[in-house]
Amino acid sequence: MKIFIATKNQKKLLELKRILIPMGFDVLCEADLDFPFKDAVEDGLTFEENAIIKARSGLEQTGYITVADDSGICVDYLGGAPGVFSARYSGEHGNDEQNNDKLLSELSGVPIEKRTAYYVAAIACVFPDGRQFTVRGECHGHIAFERQSGSGGFGYDPLFISEQGPFSQLTAEQKDAISHRGKALVLFKEELKKYIEV
Asked: Which of 12, 58, 117, 196 is a good FRET partner for 47, with 20 to 30 A between their CA atoms?
């Protein structure tokens, strides 16, 4: 059974594929289409709303069951910012370096005990018959004073310190076990079983 993942982010795509392929799905992405996939306008106020918007857009463009995720980091000292604006925090969508620079600047001089933060991932799935669901995963930790070494991860991972250590230093398997997206995918897998037999 075909399922489309509505993302242009290759690292997100790999994380989602690691769950869906073993479940027996024929996973499709933009590269499998014979037309360019258009990004949806993410104007939701929550991660869940944005994930649904992206999933519905994918379904409309492809006709396949579509999965999409919206994720970001929420810093308690900043009142939950950057939140749903995580990917475009610095003003340029998807510029990880600038986003990290801005976050470090916003937290300049803030002591470690006030640098608590959590990653959020909301995953949505929509079906051609109108059914849909969302799940949410969170991973709590804090923001470092500077980028950490390591080539793993993306986004704010060089700054995020989990209970298992810096996200940038974790293997894919270690990250999947504790990350916001890993937790959301576990819930997603269980929820999906209620909707479909694969």
From this structure: 196
Task: Give the Cα separation of 99 and 143 in Å (integer).
Answer: 13
2-195: CATH architecture: Alpha-Beta Complex (3.90)
**Token pair recorded at residue 49:** 């709303």
What b/e readout covers 156-187, taking b as 16+ CB neighbours within 10 angstroms?
bbbbbbbeeebbbbbeeebbbebbbbbbbbeb
The full set of domain ranges for the chain reads 2-195
CB neighbour class for 44 (10 Å; exposed up to 12, middle 13-18, buried from 19):
middle
Phi, psi of 162 (to 5 degrees): -95, 180
Among residues 26, 32, 70, 101, the one annotated as catalytic is 70
Q: What is the pLDDT along the chain (198 residues), one digit of tens a residue?
A: 899 999 988 878 887 887 788 888 899 999 999 888 888 888 999 999 999 999 999 999 999 999 999 999 999 999 999 999 999 999 888 799 999 999 999 999 999 999 999 999 999 999 999 999 999 999 999 999 999 988 777 889 999 999 999 999 998 888 888 999 889 988 998 998 888 764
- By the 8 A CB rule, do 103 and 75 touch? yes
- Rounded Cα distance between 19 and 176, Å, is 10
- Tell me whether residue 96 is one of the annotated catalytic residues: no
Question: 């289409």: which residue's tokens?
Answer: 33
